[in-house]
Specification:
Layout: H1 2-12, H2 31-41, E1 45-51, H3 56-67, E2 77-81, H4 90-96, H5 100-108
Parallel strand pairs: 1-2
Helix pairs in contact: 1-5, 2-3
């Protein structure tokens, strides 16, 4: 969440407004909040510390496709951790997790 907020703050300084949603839980997942954000912004980037495929990002993408597809102005993006086993060493762990620069790049790719 911290990385997403940092990315949103930097993008805001350039005039790009980003809405950050933290659904807190996967079950129950706040589908309405996700769909409402897509209806409002017309865009979506799902970010998780886990890998983007087969997990949280994939589920959020599914919710968007089912509940808000017609409101998308650009394809959605998923951003997640590197597709590697989570390293134990702190230096390597930080390389495996998405950072604010990666989130900013994902947002820019759908503008």
């Amino acid at each position: 969440m911290g990385e997403a907020l940092r990315a949103a703050e930097r993008l805001a300084s350039e005039g790009i407004e980003v809405e950050v949603i933290d659904p807190r839980t996967l079950y129950p997942l706040d589908r309405e909040a996700i769909a409402a954000s897509v209806r409002k912004t017309g865009r979506a980037v799902a970010v998780s510390d886990a890998v983007a495929r087969f997990g949280v990002c994939a589920e959020v993408a599914s919710v968007i496709m089912e509940d808000a597809f017609d409101y998308l102005d650009a394809p959605g993006r998923r951003g997640g951790g590197a597709e590697v086993p989570m390293p134990y060493a702190a230096g390597l762990e930080s390389l495996a997790l998405p950072d604010s620069a990666a989130i900013e790049a994902a947002v820019r790719s759908i503008l």
